[in-house]
Amino acid sequence: MAWWWEAMVVVVAAAAADGGTGAGSSGTVVSICVFTAVLCLCLVAGHLLEENKWVNESITALLIGCVVGAVIFLLSKGKNSRILRFDEQLFFIYVLPPIIFNAGFQVKKKQFFHNFLTIMSFGIFGVFISVAIVSTGCYWLFPKVGFGNLDAVDYLALGAIFSSTDTVCTLQVISQDETPRLYSLVFGEGVVNDATSVVLFNAIKNLDISQLKGRVALKVILDFLYLFFTSTMLGVMIGLSTAYALKALYFGRHSTDREVALMALMAYLSYMLAELLDLSGILTVFFCGIVMSHYAWHNVTESSRITTRHIFATLSFIAETFILLYVGMDALDIDKWKTSETSFKTSLGIFGIIISLVLLGRAAFVFPLSIMSNYMSRSSERAPITFKHQVVIWWAGLMRGAVSIALAYNQFTFSGVTLDPVHATIITSTIIVVFFTTLVFGFLTRPLISAMLPQHRQSTAVAGGGHSTGSNSPKDDFILPFLSLEEASGSGSGFLQAKRSISMLLERPVHTVHIYWRKFDDKFMRPIFGGPVDRDRTNYS
Amino acid sequence: MAWWWEAMVVVVAAAAADGGTGAGSSGTVVSICVFTAVLCLCLVAGHLLEENKWVNESITALLIGCVVGAVIFLLSKGKNSRILRFDEQLFFIYVLPPIIFNAGFQVKKKQFFHNFLTIMSFGIFGVFISVAIVSTGCYWLFPKVGFGNLDAVDYLALGAIFSSTDTVCTLQVISQDETPRLYSLVFGEGVVNDATSVVLFNAIKNLDISQLKGRVALKVILDFLYLFFTSTMLGVMIGLSTAYALKALYFGRHSTDREVALMALMAYLSYMLAELLDLSGILTVFFCGIVMSHYAWHNVTESSRITTRHIFATLSFIAETFILLYVGMDALDIDKWKTSETSFKTSLGIFGIIISLVLLGRAAFVFPLSIMSNYMSRSSERAPITFKHQVVIWWAGLMRGAVSIALAYNQFTFSGVTLDPVHATIITSTIIVVFFTTLVFGFLTRPLISAMLPQHRQSTAVAGGGHSTGSNSPKDDFILPFLSLEEASGSGSGFLQAKRSISMLLERPVHTVHIYWRKFDDKFMRPIFGGPVDRDRTNYS
Lengths: 541, 541
Hints:
Chains A, B: It comes from Oryza meyeriana var. granulata. 2 copies of one chain form a homodimer. The first copy, chain A, is mainly α and about 550 residues long. Chain A has 3 domains: about 1-75, no CATH class; about 90-460, Na+/H+ antiporter like fold, CATH 1.20.1530; about 475-540, no CATH class. The first copy, chain A, has helices at about 1-15, 25-50, 55-75, 90-105, 110-115, 115-140, 150-160, 170, 180-205, 215-250, 255-275, 280-295, 300-330, 335-340, 345-375, 385-395, 400-410, 420-450, 455-465, 475-490, 495-505, 510-530. Chain A starts with a helix and ends in a 12-residue tail after the last helix.
């Protein structure tokens, strides 16, 4: 590792000397050098520690960020600890899109859409419930520890900031093959949660608080629904356009580089176009990712498929590491800690309040909504969400990460700087909460999940619906004849079949919608936009 | 294509209205949207026109850029035609590195090193000769058309600006399989030329012209050699470090995403580190690319190999298209044309002078150096560079492209703006020359090469040294026993062998050095840094 350190020392020394006379603005060159070098270090360290039971990549990146921040702080003789001002624009324009697009691109669509209603209830209603609890709790408890003087909008913003979760750490521990449904719920909730909290945060920022309370709440919800629908449609449209372009234009001759470039550029375009039209880029790019992996991905060469799958994952990985690293380096920024004038006791009080509200706010929706989901699908053949799985879902969303930091900076600073002591306190509290949840909760995740899912093999059977369940399971026997009948007789023929379908729809709405969607997909969408039409029906579960 | 246009119109309308209230700075969002959308358009258009005899991708991108510039100009009612100020920092920090790294990564190393001396003489001495001719010519002829008032450094900078070539267009036409040596010469010269002209340009910029003339020239050459050597060494070191890290750390278990991320980040780090240390990032990243593809690439998974190969090519492709697009859009910037106060006649004179000097400056080194190269390797079994091939090499380097524009902006503007009429004239002349060479010369390239290499199959036999030449060719029979003998007897044993080697070295220096390098590579480098050791010797030609 000697050469790493040599390179680091050279660069950090240059950064500390505020020097370098390279081409262009030397400050930028130094920052990029340090970040690139430290990112490489994180990659290698993360890989070496992969088998470790306690440490995960998030923790590694945060700690390395801290150490680098400390080194810069010492080398610059206490003047500054960071070499790059936090820029939410950088975060929202360059770093977030690849993470969210990759989430959409890699999501196991079958599981995602099977659990669609549950995921959406967690990801949307859950955030609303959590925001309400955190906001009200802060409003009620902050004055009791001697910290107040915030607007109503600020309290709502706090709710949104501390309701955005970071599930990456938990996902590294849960096995997608062994507990596919649990994985899908945690993963799906994480993505929808990201989108919801950002959209809700923007809706809150634009609030005119002087209006009537009830109407304000209604307006937020309507705004949210409008944003959700239009953003999704835009993403789907751009995804379908890309799929069609790839299918129509590239028939017969293929160029991997062009295909990859087109997919990446169109994905990015979907995000930027949504931002331009005041929609939610995060939702747009997520659905664009889903549609692209469902249709466009099938229209390209084998090399393009491998390349896109890995390159989007790599970009997302680099972006996530970058954020955690940045948060780590930023934590030692002295100015913020100086600007915040709260006593240690008050800080501790604020920290305690936020952590308690986070724990409570999440419990307040995970358990009720799980029970409701179990009740709704009681007649379905799918196994319910067990209590242990509920605990895992609850735990998975306790970590706070990059989105929280970005939202906090967005609301309470101007270009990463704040002179208001109250706002500085909120920023430092956010950093402490992110650190604490990522390090302590992250540390405990692996042992906790080992305790909750002790016999993975057994839990697979409980959760049901794996990829490997063959056609010998009873539900497949139930579905297969139904589909064959319908396919044999064509659409819209046979009274018996229609009656059966209606009773199915009433009994198991999501499942039935899913079946119709698949038929529609096979008949109209895939022939136009691409994808294998004659896929194996028996794999459907 | 309707949806393309719809998206375009929406975005361009927003850009023209200078509007959009999206998150962050709306101007940035608009610019990114327009560029991403137009890049997508270029991709599709380039693909559709691929089979066309006259148009190539450079021409397409330039023309589309022009059209978009015109649309923005009209929609903004003549106020401005560009939505992004030219920023050499953007070019040198973000756009150039992937292009050069990819060049190093994709270069056919065998051919490249076989023709090493010829390529270097074209790429280094050629540029020196061309700079001398263009600078002297401009100094002598510019006053004759009523345009003067430039410093000596400016004339030298003009020489460097108009000595940097853009061979992409020609490379699209020459077949790597049919004329491998010609392809390698053109490709290799293009890369070394990029590096040389940038390095030389920087050396010229830092010149203190008040010193004695002779010493100045010596200093430029010494500076150049120092930069060349240190930059190359840095690139090789970082490439080897990456190879070693990948080999040592990833033994047994692999993670494609981490491997790809590490390679990409280390490559970028090499460029930035070189810039930080005042070296030539372009040379560093080029040699880093060569070393990575020679060693590191063999230490990663099959998926990583496919992904890296394509992703670097894709990035390079996007970066090149971006530049041409930008040049096209920038061409209609009214301010520059207004600031330049020269008459039409003077402009035409300047244009004529530069084009003539470009044609002459290139002829002045391609033909003599080719003849010299043929003379040097007369005793080798390799076929000489035929006159027709010399013409193709000459023609391939006539196009001027992105590097010329970037250097011109760097020297003659401040952040893309100039108020000096003389400097504005140079910028507009550069744009005209780039346009003319790319459009007119580019247009003629395919017909010219068809005329020069009429029977591709036959020319393969003349050029010799293809990939498919089996062990039945006489030269392989000549080399194989030599290698077997040496390998059987071990190193340093046998007087006969040493004598033979020395006579070989005197007779065919490059070839013999290459053989020793391969032995060293197989014995020491590959076991440490990775790569197949037991490669097929018979494939060596």
